[in-house]
Amino acid sequence: MLRRIDASVINDENEKLKSHLDADYAALADKLARDNIDIETITAKAGEFQVAVPSWGTGTGGTRFARFPGTGEPRNIWEKLEDCAVINEMSGCTDSVSPHFPWDVVSDFSELKEKADAYGLKWVSVNSNTFQDQKGQEYSYKYGSLSNTKKESRDLAIQHNLDVIEYGKQLGAKSLTVWVGDGSNHPGQSHFQRAFERYLASMEEVYKGLPDDWEMHIEHKMFEPAFYSTIIQDWGSNLLAAMHLGPKCKSLVDLGHHAPNTNIEMIVSRLIQFKKLGGFHFNDSKYGDDDLDSGSLHPYQQFLIFNELVDAEYRGQEGFGPAYMLDQSHNVTDPAESLINSAIEVQRSYVKALLVNREALYGYQEDNDALMASLELKNVFNLDISPILAMARYRKGAPINPLGVYRAAGYREGMAKQRPQDPNATGSGIV
Amino acid sequence: MLRRIDASVINDENEKLKSHLDADYAALADKLARDNIDIETITAKAGEFQVAVPSWGTGTGGTRFARFPGTGEPRNIWEKLEDCAVINEMSGCTDSVSPHFPWDVVSDFSELKEKADAYGLKWVSVNSNTFQDQKGQEYSYKYGSLSNTKKESRDLAIQHNLDVIEYGKQLGAKSLTVWVGDGSNHPGQSHFQRAFERYLASMEEVYKGLPDDWEMHIEHKMFEPAFYSTIIQDWGSNLLAAMHLGPKCKSLVDLGHHAPNTNIEMIVSRLIQFKKLGGFHFNDSKYGDDDLDSGSLHPYQQFLIFNELVDAEYRGQEGFGPAYMLDQSHNVTDPAESLINSAIEVQRSYVKALLVNREALYGYQEDNDALMASLELKNVFNLDISPILAMARYRKGAPINPLGVYRAAGYREGMAKQRPQDPNATGSGIV
Amino acid sequence: MLRRIDASVINDENEKLKSHLDADYAALADKLARDNIDIETITAKAGEFQVAVPSWGTGTGGTRFARFPGTGEPRNIWEKLEDCAVINEMSGCTDSVSPHFPWDVVSDFSELKEKADAYGLKWVSVNSNTFQDQKGQEYSYKYGSLSNTKKESRDLAIQHNLDVIEYGKQLGAKSLTVWVGDGSNHPGQSHFQRAFERYLASMEEVYKGLPDDWEMHIEHKMFEPAFYSTIIQDWGSNLLAAMHLGPKCKSLVDLGHHAPNTNIEMIVSRLIQFKKLGGFHFNDSKYGDDDLDSGSLHPYQQFLIFNELVDAEYRGQEGFGPAYMLDQSHNVTDPAESLINSAIEVQRSYVKALLVNREALYGYQEDNDALMASLELKNVFNLDISPILAMARYRKGAPINPLGVYRAAGYREGMAKQRPQDPNATGSGIV
Amino acid sequence: MLRRIDASVINDENEKLKSHLDADYAALADKLARDNIDIETITAKAGEFQVAVPSWGTGTGGTRFARFPGTGEPRNIWEKLEDCAVINEMSGCTDSVSPHFPWDVVSDFSELKEKADAYGLKWVSVNSNTFQDQKGQEYSYKYGSLSNTKKESRDLAIQHNLDVIEYGKQLGAKSLTVWVGDGSNHPGQSHFQRAFERYLASMEEVYKGLPDDWEMHIEHKMFEPAFYSTIIQDWGSNLLAAMHLGPKCKSLVDLGHHAPNTNIEMIVSRLIQFKKLGGFHFNDSKYGDDDLDSGSLHPYQQFLIFNELVDAEYRGQEGFGPAYMLDQSHNVTDPAESLINSAIEVQRSYVKALLVNREALYGYQEDNDALMASLELKNVFNLDISPILAMARYRKGAPINPLGVYRAAGYREGMAKQRPQDPNATGSGIV
Description:
The longest helix of chain A is centred in the first third of the chain and has 28 residues, at 7-34. Chain A is an alpha/beta fold. The first copy, chain A, has a single domain, classed as TIM Barrel (Alpha-Beta Barrel). Chain A contains 15 helices and twelve strands.
């Protein structure tokens, strides 16, 4: 398999850390064994866990005020793919990439697929972009895309989504994620019902183009870029659309797209119950759609979400099988470092959720023993399961200390030389 | 018709104000005529508008910290009914009362109905109470009612709702409003899906007991009394439950039960579109379920909600016909004064919404003329339509200046003498 | 005086509307006279009211996702000034412009001042920009400006602010507004106390450069572009900094920069009381720093803020005299139209606040007559004072119907021809 | 020392768990030693950590809707003290009690102090109550206490606070905590500035009565029981009041009293920097002042707050020494169980914060290495330091497994027999 960072760098570093890992792993194994948990079963499951990386996440993000570029940023999908390969080599749990079109359009998708194959990477959910106008675009999305009052703009957006499905087919993807920026900034600007009717009619056209073995995932977002209303503002509208469109359409939950104080894990449970949970965009946020690193602010919330997911798996909930993806904006860090670390933090939540004694929990719930029920979750959360994650990586040839190896390898410095940036680019944003 | 405040008091006050009202009304008529609006049509519609009063709203409210009683408060449903009569005499737009059980249970409902009839008051949506334990109650609602893990508590809650339907039949009501305090305070305390399944199963039993010409309205609430999760936390869960239960079940929107920043008027539109808008609990709030006086903080939001309602009416939206009710907690005012004033503020929003030139608005929306669309609403909102409201009252014998007449009549002072309060009651709340 | 839209266009339109205005004005005068309010006094005050326009507000705004340019946008400060002139001609209440540097740097400020003088426009508070890197900038603001850990970046930011003061002197401005994007995206990234100490030390240097008759206004902002912490996150930190720096430093309140549910009018009162209210950035928001049109969503909140301002004036509060400015982002409207309309909406709030009977209000407050106190404000808010605003404009030669005249004049269409836009610009934002 | 739960029960349970604790402790010691951390130093500090228990927290809480009492609840301060003793025996880190007056007034405070001494408990910050009217109270607090427009109500509130200081002197307390429910429910009801002036004048009188070696702590709260404005709504007003009153007056931070999304740890830093951090009321919340168990929802936020506290200690910040107290409302759990567990969760945050390598963190901050800085905190948070907490308890004779011992001892069941509750009490709340 093609590699971006030499295995020897990893191995050298791993050798230095292995004895400590063994000690920590053995201690944890003993501890878990007291609760009749076999650490090897958990480590095996940790090793199987994967979360996808978005191609666009490998570049430095920005805000409407400014973008401060990093060094050695990828300039196209080929270089983004290179970075995704590194992220997977380091994290050991990101074996797939989610592309965004038209940003990632290439003339020969088979070449792109081959390149990914060589790195051991798969292509997953394809994303359409109707929240920007492309150069020379005949009809604008300024006032909406799939829900625009003008048929021409709607048709353009529908066709783009159908095109994206075609790109995805060539890459071997099996799902389309649809997020639109449609909405309004003024009361009265948009007729809520008519706009939603137009949206649904357009989505019906896209749905028709969906292969039988594909899914379509709708993403809701409370605000931004529209600031008074958005067409799919919350899981309620999302669910209505997904039910209207049919069984291949499901809802996608982005952790940063909710109203303040929202109990997201409960929404996840409802979507599971009604067979409409399509997938996740993992990130963290404090104020809005901040797109911060997953679990960097609310690790317990992330764990509680995985508690719902693992519980559904445990109960054999019908129709359950969401897609996991990171979706972050990295404004002040090396995007590769953030993605490596975030993937592992998501994996950490998953592994902790596996350790919950579900039968004991059900018993506490049945007995309304609120404190013990809460401690069944909290005690697991308080465990340090890092040795399991490290061992899972070690066993597949990934680093015990991923960021240490990444930095030791000097990857970004190398890219800074190989990928000269546009000298005319400024850090000015949109104001 | 039986009256609580003598008509002569009203007439005397009205005479003093009539010439000014005539002048203001004429000026407004001229102004509206320029836009081809016939003021008489609007005034007639204003006169037909009604919003129900909740029986419990006539007493002074409180918080978990304290309740500071007012003077002359009603001590039972008979006295609450008296106050509702006064409120209707003054406002001219609150001809119905919504009772709450078991608080308002009486031994002879026909007597209660007769009394209301005498006042010209109707009984509308009946409310059940399974968020408190009643003295001697065999099974507690501490850990839930309709969704309790224990069948005994669920059965009690189901039976109570069925009883409430029976009370309602005797009073001539046609709908049951169900709000429960069920939820959890700790992650893990409640299994979200199982709790919701139990809730739905219980509600199915209640639904079976619903007469064919009744509706059942489900009320969602983001938090309080449960502080981590509530069983029907938002319109998403509300809608799922209403769809599950059947066509007689609809969602009720309480303006104070949403997450911060939520676009409530959009939720109203969605519920209208999907034929699930059952009714409203009007109030206002700044921080949570504050139950402040309707429109006292966000009058434009209240107008925007009525803009959706009047638009649905204008378009002849199928299945549209929500019930309107005030639901406020009056901690620092005379409840009757707040209810009189709030009813008129709700009526004000309705009347303004009638003045919107909908065809012009549709044109701006179609053309994406955001500014003119927003001004079509804002310009109407900026109008002073008080003369229409006052004239509508005057024509039905209600006061031009309701609060002036109410105070001049010395109603509360009279009640303070007639209704001695429990001398042992303290202002202590629950801490 | 130099004009952008011919006076004859205004006069022609005004003639058509004058008789209706006279009728409405007379009716309102009668109504107010009943409460012993002389409409002429109010109209005179309305005519004196001014709110500044930000130079950058004349261009179409955008988000991190995209910017959809409008037609005929100004391409430099000269053209922005032209648009500001039009806005003032139409609104009759925006006689000053607030520039932003380095965006608005010109080689000869005296020429710029002359041009503004010719239009009858003044230059007010100058704004510095250390939230973006300029092309060729030696030290970056990526990790902060005035609070950067690196002295070189701090020095650059200090010098830039000193430069901006110099530009302002040449334009006749008397205040500097400082907003910085400094903050952090990760817990731990920034040492809160040390960063604030560096910020204060840098601001001391800027303060030293402030002429004696100038003020410095600090702007707080809860989030964006930093998403975990910002250096001046709220009025608490703002006040601490303003008190630390000295009497010439005051706090500026932007309506969109607060936590959800915040009672902004109360913050205004506190700043007035402690002599630290420097000024306002007016706009409206529903979710965050949305920068929507002033009063477009929460007109009553805007009125309540002016209620505090007029009350301070009425009481002769020492040290009171805040600067008023619009600060909006116009993503879907013609910026000139939004600014014209918003200026008038701000003026509307001011005029309504003048109508409050303050002595009556104080009496209700003293007596804890909560309902009558609230109605003293609400009844005034419910008045339609549009005739006062229109008459004030008419008397100074501005349009009775500003947007009607603006459109009739075909200003934007003319600019679309005169100001060809960069054909290579795309609508792509920063992602 | 007088005990509530026999030491033998603890010892028996500890013996069963000791060998596992030893193994876990040794493994953790090894792990920490790699980073040059001596576990014994940390364990000693953990053993010294104390957080106070509020007397009122030992009873079951409620909401305005209902209170569902638990069994065996304490009926007076003597029984509350008994429960506080148990909580301290189990947690090993709650050696002090904070009383609330007039609830906890007794005829002989020396007897109360002796009883506490016997249990090894100290009395800390005394709390006044002017948010409720007491039976027979001559002037009401319905419209405010220290800020009431009526001098009689203000004087009553001032005198009560002075009385509370006297009670505190007899108990050996050294601080007074002042929280008032003053505020308003309607715009206009209260004149913000005048109300604040009255509040400050009243507080000056209380301050005069404060002994020289005491502190006064002001508590802010965004809302409830007042729902439009509160007199000390946030840390800004809190700080202004504390600075106005003098050096003995400081601000108290309750974790549940902030606007949504507020960065509380940053407020803590600011208060430390300006020498005004008086203390904490620990609890957790999702929606408002939910008073949930400390760290039960946002354990990372609690850790980040302690990161600020330990950092201030590390830097030897002048004037630093806040008081720590739990302040929770236990509606669905045994209050003793919640308080035991919460005290340990607070201790957990403190101990984790001790493990941060501050010099390394400062280095990352200086270098703007955002990711490594964030990981310096997150990696420590991800550690399981339960063995340190358990060993610290074990060494002082407290249980390795506190809740296990508490339940095994059958304490609550015993109290249910000894403390018969009022049979006439109902679960009805205030509506």
